[in-house]
Amino acid sequence: QHRFSTKKLQGTYRCWSVDTQSKELKLSDWFFPSKSMNLTNTSWSAPIVWEGTFDEEVLEKYYAKHKITVGLTVFAVGRYIDHYLKKFISSADMFFMAGHKVIIYVLIDDLSRMPWIQLSRLRTIKVFEIKREKRWQDISMMRMKTISEHVVNHIQYEVDFLFCMDVDQIFIGKYGLETLGESVAQLHAYWYKEDPKEVPYERNESSEAYIPIGMGDFYYHAAVFGGTPIQVLDIARECLKGIMNDKKNSIEAVWHDESHLNKYFFLHKPTKLLSPEYCWDYGRMNGLYYPNIKLYWAVKDYKNLRVIT
Ligand SMILES: CC(=O)N[C@H]1[C@@H](OP(=O)(O)OP(=O)(O)OC[C@H]2O[C@@H](n3ccc(=O)[nH]c3=O)[C@H](O)[C@@H]2O)O[C@H](CO)[C@H](O)[C@@H]1O
Ligand SMILES: [Mn+2]
Questions:
Q1: Hey, which residues does 48 pair with through a beta bridge?
Q2: Please, which residues have CB within 8 angstroms of residue 151's CB and are 6 or more apart in sequence?
Q3: 261 lines ligand 1 (CB under 6 A)
Q4: Where do the annotations place an alpha-L-fucosyl-(1->2)-beta-D-galactosyl derivative binding (predicted)?
Q5: In the prediction, which pLDDT does 9 show?
Q6: Which of 65, 96, 167, 236 is 20 to 30 Å from the Cα of 142, by its Cα?
């Protein structure tokens, strides 16, 4: 078993297996990082996708012949429905996999509050009612349970690739084929330049999400992850297992599902990483400028929006 044991962590990474089901285009055909850019490859040879590293034309041509459908799950519970959902979906309609088939899976705790949104061609929405967890921490963490159930029940038969995203964000640039992969992780905008020693991994040894100081590769943002449906199923199941075991021991990891996701990607290296351009925070990172932001954080308002318990 790969769950935590200090001895096992040392040097024995489980690398990804080649998923023969994946319709992904071969890396050497479309990924051309320039030498002047930093951080375009990981130590396990996964690409880190930035604007300027990929040949969009080659990708479009390839996927014109190999038709795909891309899924996108988003949760909206409580006040997050009225505050974020419409903007997230209408901006996704415009920018997420433009020109390709997309199914947006909305998981909502009150169907009657689902906003009416006129979609473009090739886009479908499927709405599912879910039960509302009492604490915001559980709303966030139990997404892993709901995602895994829906992947098992239907998503796996409907899409070739799947993304799972937070609702409190907005697309503003083309979020395209370059992001597709077997297992895709998002670099967190606050920590992508940081030494892994400094990032907020769970440091409690008793937690399933524990990563010892000095280990770890990057700090990944749980607001975006994806891959093939089978891979996403594995991510969601493993994270849920960690979350539930922690609950049994009355532990809650410091950044909830994000801590468990970081543990997962530490043990099972993602095959593709997305630069912070794919999930940017204009609020805190305003000293830095990237001209090609594709998705950014909406303004947070925890005090008014989160369920209070
Ligand atoms: C950088 C950072 O601070 N990250 C943490 C923070 O992310 P966030 O502050 O981005 O968390 P969040 O409030 O966006 O919650 C995550 C997602 O759960 C859904 N949702 C959550 C609450 C709610 O009342 N209704 C609802 O629909 C919604 O899709 C939302 O986008 O908090 C999360 C827990 O919430 C995780 O611990 C993240 O690791
Ligand atoms: Mn969020």
A1: 273
A2: 162, 229, 230, 232, 233, 236
A3: no
A4: 188, 258, 281
A5: 36
A6: 96
Ligand 1 pocket residue status of 139, Cβ below 6 Å: yes
Q: What is the DSSP annotation of 112-145?
A: GGPPP----TTEEEEEEE-PPPSSHHHHHHTHHH
Return the active site residues: 258
Residue 17 has pLDDT above 70, yes or no: no
Query: Which value does ipTM take for this structure?
Result: 0.92
* Domains of the chain with bracketed CATH: 55-300 (3.90.550.10)
Report how far residue 309's alpha carbon sits from residue 297's, in angstroms, rounded to the nearest whole number: 25
Rounded CA gap, 184 and 169, in Å? 18
* Rounded (10°) CA dihedral 15, 17, 23, 24: 20
Q: Residue 203 corresponds to which tokens in the numbers above?
A: 């440091």
- Over range 53-81, report the average pLDDT: 97
Q: Whose CA is nearest to atom 35 of ligand 1?
A: 140
DSSP string, 250-300: T---TTTHHHHHHHHHHHB--SEEE-GGGSB-TTT-TTS--TT--EEEPPP
Q: Is 151 annotated as a binding residue?
A: no
Sequence-distant (6+) residues with CB within 8 A of 227 are 161, 162, 181, 182, 183, 184, 235, 270, 271
- The string of pLDDT tens digits covering residues 187-242 is 999 999 999 999 999 999 999 999 999 999 999 999 999 999 999 999 999 999 99
The mean pLDDT of the chain is 92
CB–CB of 273/185 below 8 Å? yes
